[in-house]
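Lab notebook, bench 4. Continuing the backlog of folding jobs that were queued last week. Each job is logged with the same field layout so the records can be merged later without manual cleanup. Today's entry covers NETI motif-containing protein, a 66-residue chain. Filled in by technician R.K.

JOB TYPE: sequence-to-structure
TARGET: NETI motif-containing protein
LENGTH: 66
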Amino acid sequence: MSKKKTIWFDVETEETIEDCLKRMAAEGYAVAGRKEEPLFTEVNGEFIPVRQVIKFKGVLREDENA
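JOB STATUS: finished
OUTPUT FIELD FOLLOWS
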């Protein structure tokens, strides 16, 4: 099965950034970008920040295609 050339990896709640990067490398992807998005929850009509969602853009490494 052919892998996608680009894919976004989310840093899971109980995962460190380093763990996510290792997971990307194990799947054959290299980091090509990063983005962070705030995650909010609504409490009594007020939006309260819960955490930052960190995502890494992975690009399939060329040596994996050969």
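OBSERVATION: Residues 6-65 form one domain.
SIGNED: R.K.
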